[in-house]
Amino acid sequence: PQWINDAMDCFKTLDAKLYPGWSRVVEAWVNFEKSGTFDNKVSLRLPCKHRPEEIKHWISRGRRYDRLPIVKSTAQYASAWKAWWISMQPLCRMPEGGAAWPPRSITPKAAGQWDSLRVGGTNGIFIVVVSLAIW
């Protein structure tokens, strides 16, 4: 789809020397989108709760790649981003006693436990990739 090509053009502008793992992130995202291992209904989207304000603003302003948001406070952005990421994790990855960083490195036994993150398209994991791109 055209939106993937447009996103790829934008992501290629990031300096791979500054972000050595970036190409692997983008490649994993493209493979995820190509796999189609999700139900790509328009109504599916990642949760908005805790999503960083910069991303909310970018989405509400038409998702223009030539106007990616600028993070004003890295500490504030990181805090919001981590809360957002934690909120999407399967329960088995949450430490006892509530959300903490980082999520536990446990693979859920049931595939359905990943449903909160197995969201493709323009409202899915793509938004996470954009949120990493501007960090």
Keywords:
about 140 residues; mainly alpha; globular
Characterize the structure shown.
The chain has 135 residues and is mostly helical. It has helices at residues 2-11, 22-35, 53-60, 74-87, 125-133. It is globular and about 40 Å long.
- The overall pLDDT average reads 86
- Order of helix and strand elements from N to C terminus: HHHHH
Number of extended strands = 0
* Anisotropy-based shape: globular
Structural class: mainly alpha
Major β-sheet, in short? none
Instruction: Give the percentage of residues in beta strands.
Output: under 5%
Radius of gyration equals 15 Å
Helix count, per DSSP? 5
- Span of the ends, CA to CA: 26 Å
> Helix content range of the residues, please?
40-55%
Uncertain parts: none
Provide a short characterization of the protein structure.
The chain has 135 residues and is mainly alpha-helical. The protein is built from 5 helices and no strands.
What's the SSE blueprint?
Layout: H1 2-11, H2 22-35, H3 53-60, H4 74-87, H5 125-133
Helix pairs in contact: 2-5
